[in-house]
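Entry 14. Ran structure prediction on the chain below.
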Amino acid sequence: MEKVLFDIHLAEAEINANYNIFYTDSARKQELLNSVLKKHKITEAILDTSLVWYSGHLDKYFKINNNLLKRFIESAETLKQKEGLLAIPNLPSDGRGFLLPVGKTRFLLRIGDLPHNAFTFKADTILNRYGGAYELQFNILGVSSSIKPVVTLCVQCIDTTFVKRDTISQNGSFKSSIDIIQGKQAKILHGSIYFPEVHPEMGIFIQEFILFHSYQPLSVVQPAK
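Output, structure tokens:
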């Protein structure tokens, strides 16, 4: 099961890294996932049944999850040494925004070591910018039926604070964003990842943790005809 999940997460990472290709070609996406099932000589039904079984035997799932975290950390380190840095997915290449410094871009969260089961983050800079959108994105591994992290993203302005909350229900790529009114001046970007109900020994692996500011809103409302 560990080998199967490892390859599935690799396939999902490939899909997320090439979003424009796979999400406009669902057959290609399914073909990649089917190749993993074929490699391990199982069907999608067998995989689903196995995941249901492990949800009732969490001690065994915890062990697999911890091993997967270690393997992904080793893989990330190998990739960093080989290529010099990790690829940053799905960022605009047209100069319409810029990355905000956040310190570490990949880390292992041990739930039992987090105050109040929450990991907090903050952009390492004073923003002083008007309007646009602020985006958080990362890849996550360790989410299960018993772990559904709640992500809170906050943009603090002089007289207003914009807040966005999302629940992560699956492993893979996560993205959240907040559009700021043009006349508002953002000062601080911060947030948290909260784990409501977890086992104290469980761990979450996060990589490619990115905060990004876009000069233009990410969602544009079209005028009525």
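Confidence is low (pLDDT under 50) at residues 83-89, 219-225. Will compare against last week's run tomorrow.
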